[in-house]
Amino acid sequence: MRILIADDHPVVRQGLKQILAADPKLNVVGEAKNGNEAMALARSLEWDVAVLDFSMPGKSGLELLKEIKREFPGRPVLVLSMYPEDVHATRVLKAGGDGYLNKSSASEELTGAIRKVMAGGKYVSPSLAEKMALELTPNAQKPLHEELSDREYRVMWLLASGKQIKQVAREMFLSASTVSTYRSRILKKLKLSGNADLVRYAIKHQLVE
After folding, report:
1. Nearest of 35, 39, 15, 19 to residue 27 by alpha carbon
2. Contact 30, 5 (CB under 8 A)
3. Going from the N-terminus, what domains does the chain have, and what CATH number goes with each?
4. N or C: the chain end with fewer CB closer than 10 Å?
């Protein structure tokens, strides 16, 4: 199986390659350090499964995931993140992802997750499966951030992580005025008054540490 990996940290990419090298049937054919590079490799290489970091410079994991799925709908994509799966996994799966892994468990679960999605399945942990089942119950209360678009969600997450508007704009390849517009929209949707409230909201819902 030919694997494409994308993560902006060289140490993480090296670690993923070491994990996958333990199985002779898995072969890393390309590695990218940002979303744009990953998309270029996806178009130029022959691959079977993509393993993407959730948050990278340029296209985020969600944006990259959707773009890959549009162009290669039959190929599975796993998303990795340092954040617990109950924070971002549901959004990843709704965007077309085939599985979500916390980086801390990648050494034990990555190979099995790849095999499962290659067989046509979805990879989720039992705890995430239970959470998703609860969300499907009638009258389940969804948090306000579930109403944000993927682009708004990323802007919210970056601002709540302590990034300034100019930093967010640079990381997402947007203008500062566009990020400011997103910020205003996000605050309105979340019924918040400013960045301090946004940080408190994100901590309360475990979106950031």
Report:
1. 19
2. yes
3. 2-135 (3.40.50.2300), 144-204 (1.10.10.10)
4. C
Between the alpha carbon of residue 147 and those of residues 141, 142, 185, the distances in Å are 12, 9, 11
Predicted pLDDT of residue 33? 92
The Cα 125–Cα 123 span in angstroms is 7
Minimum mean pLDDT range among 9-23, 44-58, 82-96, 110-124:
82-96
Distance CA 170, CA 86 (A): 28
> Using an 8 Å Cβ cutoff, are 102 and 66 in contact?
no
Residue scoring higher pLDDT (11 or 141): 11
Q: What is the dihedral of CA 131, 196, 164, 57, to 10 degrees?
A: -10
Q: What is the pTM of this model?
A: 0.70
